[in-house]
Amino acid sequence: MRKIQMIIACLLISTSAIAADKDNRKILALSEAQRGHVLEEMRALLSGTRNILAALSTDDMAAVSKYARPLGLGMAHKAEDHLKGVLPREFMQLGMFLHRDFDQIAADAESRQDPKLTLRQLSDAMTKCVACHDTYQIRTTPVSGQPAKTHEHGRHHH
Ligand code: HEC
C-alpha cells in the first residue's frame, strides 16, 4: 500500500514538473530583425545594470549616473522606430516605466549621491525585468505582408 502511494506521489510530482517546463508565456511574434533589436536592448540592460552595481560597490555615484543614463528614455526612443506597432501596448508601457526608472536613478545619483537609495531604486526597477520575463517570450515568424522581392532587395544591401 505504501509503495503504491509512493508511486502515485512520484507520478504527480513528475507530471507537474513537465507542466512547469512548458513555456506558457504570451508569445511575441517578431521577425528575426525585430527579435535582434529587442535582444540587443536586453543585453545592454543587463550589462548596464552590472556596471551600475560595480560603480555602487565603490560608491562612485558619478559612474552610476554615467551608466544609468543610456538606459533611460533615450534608449526607448531609439528602439521605437524599429518596433512601433509590433509590440503590445502593455509591453511597451512596462519598458517605458523601466527606462523612466533609469533616468530617475541617473538624476538621483547625481543630486542625492546616496548609494543605498540607488540600490533600492535599482531593485525596484528590476521587478519590471522579472515581471516582463515572467509574461512574455519571443518567437520568430517569417516576415508577413511583405512581397518576397522587397525582402530579397533589402537583403542585398546588407
Ligand atoms: C517589457 C518587457 C521586458 C522588460 C521590462 C525587460 N525584458 Fe529582458 N527580455 C524580454 C523578452 C520578451 C525577452 C526574450 C525572452 C524569451 O524569448 O524567452 C528578454 C530577454 C532578455 C535577455 C536575453 C538576451 C539575449 O540575447 O538572449 C536578457 C539578458 C534580458 N532580457 C535582460 C533584461 C534586464 C536586465 C532587464 C531589466 C533591467 C530586462 N531584461 C527587462 C522582455 C523584457
If you had to describe this structure to a student in words, what would you say it looks like?
- With 158 residues, the protein is mainly alpha-helical.
- It has 7 helices and 2 strands.
- The chain has a two-stranded parallel ribbon.
- Helix 2 runs antiparallel to helix 4 (73-83) and helix 4 (73-83) packs antiparallel against helix 5.
- The model is unreliable at 147-158 (pLDDT under 50).
- It binds heme C.
- Heme C binds next to helix 2, helix 5, helix 6 and strand 2.
Global structural class: mainly alpha
In CATH, the topology is named Four Helix Bundle (Hemerythrin (Met), subunit A)
As a percent range, the share of strand residues is 5-15%
Our Rg estimate from Cα atoms comes to 21 Å
Q: Indicate the overall shape.
A: flat
CATH classification, class level: Mainly Alpha
Major sheet size, sense and barrel closure: 2 strands, parallel
Q: What ligand species are in this complex?
A: heme C
Q: Give me the strand/helix succession.
A: HEHHHHHEH
Task: Estimate the mean pLDDT confidence.
Answer: 85
Strand order of the largest sheet: 1-2
CATH architecture: Up-down Bundle
Q: Helicity, in percent?
A: over 70%
Number of strands: 2
What are the segments in which pLDDT stays under 50 over at least 5 consecutive residues?
147-158
- Number of separate structural domains: 1
Span of the ends, CA to CA: 68 Å
> Given the structure, what is the number of helices?
7
